[in-house]
Amino acid sequence: MRCQWFINALGVRAEKNTCELLATIKPNAAPTLETFQELLQSNPHVFFSARTPKALMNHWHLMKHYYLLPDQTVQPLPREDATVLTFSDAEETINDSELADARDVALEQELSLADRRAKKEIRTLENEMGRWQVLVDSVTGISPLDFDNQTLAVLKGRLVRYLMRSREITIGRTTKDHSVDVDLTLEGPAWKVSRRQGTIRLRNNGDFYLASEGKRAIFVDGRPILAGNKYRLNNNSVVEVAGLRFIFLVNQELISVIRQEAAKLSLQSSN
Predict the structure, then answer these.
(1) What does the DSSP assignment read for the chain?
(2) 258 vs 196, higher pLDDT
(3) pLDDT, tens digit, 9 for 90 and up, residues 203-220
(4) In whole angstroms, what is the distance from residue 235 CA to residue 248 CA?
(5) Which of 14, 77, 149, 267 has its CA 20 to 30 A from that of 172?
(6) Which domain of life is it from (predicted)?
């Protein structure tokens, strides 16, 4: 009776004895459409001719959901004097230490190795700082260039400037397995530049020379310098490599001191 009232309350038109027939299927069973098809075929005088197995299955699941099948028991409501555990009470009983993730030994070892590698790379970079031959600065505006007492010359481009702080620096294109002091890829597209395009050397007399070593010629003040040849660089010389143009600026004060020292050594050796 309770089942029939429930189905009517849902607005479902049900035949007489529908609940009784559906109750013959146990709640712990896993009926399929074939089960309800057999129920329809064995009781043709009970169900409407348009009734489908799927509709009967939906009715049966509703009865099971609301504990209307005979073998189902409904949990009793708590007594008035019984203590009902609220969400806050349940939350207070949780031990946070028990919620911690399980220790992942493999992950800890991997992180430890990565940490050691990172520290080793940092120490290597710190040790190499004093041996850096070229520093790269961003070029901002057309402000006058200030030389320090360590910069011999500057190769100034449109975007970056390369500070020459060694008597010999290499020019070219840095790759995964090859590095140069002056990486022209920082200035612009350098796919036409050789990995080792050339070398700039400062002689003892204070003169700078550019040696061309790449497949393409290096242009100095419009003159092509082919591979195997050298050319003297002056202050404000224009150096062009594969469409990338630079101005070579000399630290005149520092070079003057170098030339004076070279002259003194020459006199001492002659005496």
Answers:
(1) -HHHHHHHHTT----TTHHHHHTTS-TTS---HHHHHHHHHH-TTTS-TT--HHHHHHHHHHHHHTT-STT--PPPPPPTTSPPPPHHHHHHT--GGGGSPPP-HHHHHHHHHHHHHHHHHHHHHHHHGGG--EEEEE--TTPPPPP-TT--EEEE-SSEEEEE-SSEEEEE--BTTB--SEEGGGTS--TTS-TEEEEEEE-TTS-EEEEE-SSSPEEETTEEE-TT-EEEE-TTEEEEETTEEEEEEE-HHHHHHHHHHHHHHHHHHH-
(2) 196
(3) 888 899 999 998 889 999
(4) 6
(5) 149
(6) Eukaryota
pLDDT above 80 (res 171)? yes
Task: Give the span between the Cα atoms of 204 and 269, in whole angstroms.
Answer: 14
The pLDDT assigned to 142 comes to 42
pTM over 0.85: no
Instruction: Specify whether the CB–CB gap between 120 and 112 falls below 8 A.
Output: no
CA distance 153 to 197: 19
Is residue 5 scored above 60 in pLDDT? no
Kindly report which listed range (81-90, 101-110, 206-215) carries the lowest average pLDDT score. Answer: 81-90
Query: If we measure between CA atoms, which residue out of 163, 162, 133 comes closest to residue 151?
Result: 163
Average pLDDT of the chain, as a whole number: 79
Between 92 and 160, the higher pLDDT residue = 160
| Other CB atoms within 10 A of residue 11 CB | 6
